[in-house]
Write a structure and sequence with these properties.
By secondary structure, this protein is of the alpha+beta class. Strand 1 and strand 2 form a beta hairpin. Helix 1 packs antiparallel against helix 2.
Length: about 400
């Protein structure tokens, strides 16, 4: 039997081809030669992907039969894992209802319909200096003055706008013309699909107060999730996103911040009035946070077969990745920790090394949920050290 670690004939041939290229180039220090070699290596490795060492092919039929038994067991393992994920979703639904009471009360405070009691406001920061400062300022005269000054302030102004601006995945999508609209945002919540739903999904609800921009009270985006493992599947990757469903915003006339009016001068070339200039007005799309509520185009069902199709596929994959990254962040971090994003404390936690490691794990999980159809992330816009508010141009939001 051949040595398990021995290279195959094709692997040896590829190694020889690369060695011949080095010898023919006259030296590996030559930049042109290095570039050629790197290209050959990349192509060679791509060609060799999935090549067996020959070990499996040389196993006796009786052993291969046992391997098939193990693969069948692996398929059964995938079915159990899918059931495990369904149980996790059931727990998420259960605890989601428990969280909802806290979130509802939080909303009454931020929007100003409820004033917390003194007991509810008893919270001492861990910083001793801050605690001492609070004690020094807490006298009757200061309290009375503060009460008079705060009499006209309702709730916590711009709470959710500030939260979104401090959260890195949403901050990148907020344009200046979005800010006046988002000032009317009163609450963001997440809702799971009922247990008897035909498809599993979760929804993000953005509730707005009455405003001069659109008629809708709540803007909703739905994300469908697949939990089942396919029959015979052996590599179950966990829950997978199956698509999303946005909503149509009923903008009031002239208030749609996802569009802008541009003027273009046109000069008449022929006939009567030749040379005259007229101004033509056109409505064109513009970048906006509210493009997040658009439904994304469906992912192509077939693999791309040309460079043009590959480019289109990559563009759609980028859109899905950006969209699900925002949705996952809102669902898992922004809503549960809203007050910490408002104060900025969550930024400190998000920048810790341990948190960065967690982010990488979440990113890998997110890629798995999208079936691996995601772009590489060597660019700066996905830098884990990104700090919102830093003096730099904010990263582009591909969602727009």
């Amino acid at each position: 039997m051949a040595d398990q670690g021995a290279p195959s004939a094709k692997e040896l041939a590829e190694a020889q081809r690369i060695a011949d290229a080095i010898n023919a180039g006259g030296g590996a220090s030559d930049p042109a030669t290095l570039a050629a070699i790197q290209g050959m290596i990349a192509n060679g490795l791509a060609d060799m992907a999935g090549i067996s060492s020959g070990y499996l092919e040389e196993l006796p039929p009786a052993v291969l039969r046992r391997v098939k038994a193990l693969k069948k067991m692996q398929s059964e393992h995938a079915q159990i894992e899918a059931q495990y994920q369904k149980e996790i979703l059931a727990l998420d639904r259960k605890f989601g209802e428990m969280y909802s009471g806290l979130y509802a009360k939080r909303a009454t405070i931020t929007e100003g319909s409820y004033e917390p009691t003194e007991e509810e406001c008893e919270w001492v920061e861990s910083d001793d200096e801050e605690e001492e400062k609070i004690k020094e300022e807490d006298d009757e005269g200061a309290a009375a003055a503060a009460a008079d000054a705060d009499a006209d302030v309702k709730g916590i102004p711009k709470f959710w706008l500030t939260v979104l601006q401090n959260f890195k995945h949403t901050e990148a999508c907020i344009e200046d013309h979005d800010v006046p609209v988002l000032e009317y945002l009163q609450n963001i919540t997440m809702v799971y699909s009922p247990e008897d739903s035909e498809k599993d999904f979760f929804e993000l609800h953005f509730r707005f107060g009455e405003n001069p921009f659109f008629k809708d009270e709540t803007l909703i985006k739905r994300y469908f999730i697949k939990l089942d493992a396919e029959e015979g599947e052996v590599m179950y990757g966990g829950p997978a996103y199956e698509g999303n469903e946005g909503c149509k915003i009923e903008w009031l006339p002239g208030k749609d911040v996802t569009k802008q009016e541009i003027e273009k001068k046109q000069r008449k070339k022929k006939g009567k009035g030749a040379g005259e200039v007229r101004v033509v007005k056109r409505i064109v799309p513009q970048k906006s946070f509210f493009s997040f509520f658009d439904s994304l185009p469906p992912m192509p069902e077939e693999e791309p077969t040309s460079a043009k199709e590959e480019e289109a596929f990559s563009e759609i994959a980028n859109m899905y990745y950006e969209d699900y990254q925002i949705a996952d962040g809102i669902k898992g971090k922004l809503i549960p920790q809203a007050v910490l994003w408002f104060t900025g404390e969550a930024l400190d936690y998000d920048e810790d090394d341990d948190e960065d490691d967690d982010d990488e794990g979440e990113e890998a999980e997110l890629r798995a949920m999208l079936g691996g159809n995601l772009p590489d992330e060597d660019d700066e816009e996905h830098d884990p050290d990104y700090k919102p508010g830093a003096e730099e141009e904010k990263p582009e939001c591909k969602q727009q």
